[in-house]
Write a structure and sequence with these properties.
Layout: E1 2-6, E2 14-15, E3 18-19, H1 21-37, E4 42-46, H2 57-73, E5 78-81, H3 88-91, H4 95-98, E6 103-106, H5 109-112, E7 116-118, E8 121-126, H6 131-138, H7 146-158, E9 166-172, E10 174-175, E11 194-195, E12 205-209, E13 222-224, E14 241-246, E15 251-256, E16 263-269, H8 270-274, E17 285-291, H9 299-304, E18 310-315, H10 334-346, H11 352-371
Parallel strand pairs: 1-4, 4-5, 5-6, 8-9, 9-12, 10-11, 12-13, 16-17, 17-18
Antiparallel strand pairs: 1-14, 2-3, 7-8, 14-15
Helix pairs in contact: 1-2, 6-7, 10-11
């Protein structure tokens, strides 16, 4: 059995107000081709189907086309869970009758306890669940964290797990030690979202979503697929793609995907950018951090004439070597204090004209204080 493990499609994602729907649609079409080319038997999508809980009609259309091509045209079983970006109610609409089409959608705690059985494999589809939801479901006030939540869910699964079969858990969560990026919406504040690896000991494989790099965790049976494309500029150097699990060969392989338009980040001077010396493609979505822009009016406008997909421009702060000195100033008069400050800043004394002006301003200030 060959299983394609996907995660974090984030259909409808925008980056600095730039819609990525066109690139996403092309990548999803490529995935359909990969299913055929690699002789995939089952497709698993580990959450965050959409980027928003209320997706646009365009995003929904791209998702529906993708699932139709996999499930109806290619006649492949598709297993889906909801992630923290998804609305369980919207994603799960009609899920009961969709099972008849071999399209399995898990969006609730109850869904997690009934495995999807295909040949000798039991898939336990555990969607993203908030601790408050688990606390209410299990009537257990001790459930405070995501680890508590998934511990309670997995304990219930372990009561009925069939060890004669290959048991695979699919979920959307943050394993302790995983690497995050800006595009992964924070599940909760602090460390209470962390789930420990030791929870998964009863499963042969665990297919996860939420973290956008396939290298987020190193383990023999727990895997992230990562997102299908780069969704923030701190993902520039991450691998993007999907995994193939071959249950006969007992192998796990990562297959990279090349997006129609790449994401790149570069630092340098404004002149470097104008002269195309930053080492980036003009056809990529770009972020620049540039120095020596103080003399340039409308630098973004001028740069976009060369780099039409420039999405973000930051001024690069130049590091200055500043020396600090302590001086005794409490016994200095106001005039002496100004003289000392001016000399420290310029290495020159006040000239006569400057001195007269300072004296005038100080005297006026004193007179104002006396008349208040």
């Amino acid at each position: 059995m060959r299983i394609m493990h996907l995660g974090d499609l984030h259909i409808g994602k925008t980056l600095n107000q730039q819609s990525l729907l066109n690139e996403q649609s092309q990548l999803l079409d490529e995935l359909v081709k990969q299913v055929e080319a690699l002789c995939v038997d089952i497709i698993v999508i580990a959450g965050d189907i959409y980027d928003r809980s209320i997706p646009s009609k365009e995003a929904m259309g791209i998702y529906e086309t993708f699932i139709y091509n996999l499930n109806q045209k290619l006649q492949k079983p598709v297993l889906i869970i909801s992630g923290n970006h998804d609305s369980p109610e919207r994603l799960g609409h009609g899920k009961a009758w969709m099972k008849m089409l071999n399209l399995y959608i898990s969006t609730s705690i109850e869904d997690a306890f009934v495995p999807v059985s295909i040949d000798n494999i039991d898939f336990y589809l555990v969607p993203f669940i908030e601790p408050a939801t688990a606390r209410l479901y299990f009537e257990d006030d001790t459930i405070k964290t995501h680890h508590d939540t998934y511990h309670a869910i997995i304990n219930r699964i372990e009561e009925r797990i069939n060890n004669a079969k290959l048991n695979i858990m699919v979920s959307h969560l943050f394993v302790s030690g995983g690497n995050t990026t800006d595009s992964e919406r924070e599940i909760s504040v602090g460390a209470i979202e962390n789930v420990h690896l030791d929870l998964f000991k009863s499963f042969d494989y665990v297919m996860l979503g939420h973290l956008h790099t396939p290298d987020a965790i190193k383990d023999d049976k727990v895997f992230y697929s990562g997102s299908i494309m780069k969704y923030s500029f701190d993902e520039v150097h991450q691998r993007k793609g999907f995994r193939i699990f071959d249950t006969e060969e007992k192998s796990v392989q990562f297959i990279p995907l090349n997006p129609p338009r790449n994401l790149e980040y570069a630092e340098g001077t404004y002149d470097d950018a104008i002269n195309k010396n930053l080492g980036v493609s003009q056809d990529s979505y770009l972020k620049f951090e540039l120095s020596n822009m103080g003399h340039v009016t409308e630098p973004m406008f001028k740069l976009k004439q060369i780099y039409p997909y420039l999405l973000e421009l930051k001024h690069k702060t130049e590091k200055l070597n500043i020396e600090y000195q302590q001086k005794e100033v409490q016994y200095l008069s106001q005039t002496e204090l100004v003289k000392q400050f001016y000399f420290d800043m310029t290495d020159e004394p006040l000239n006569d004209v400057q001195q007269e002006l300072i004296d005038l301003l100080i005297n006026e200030s004193r007179m104002n204080d006396e008349t208040d």
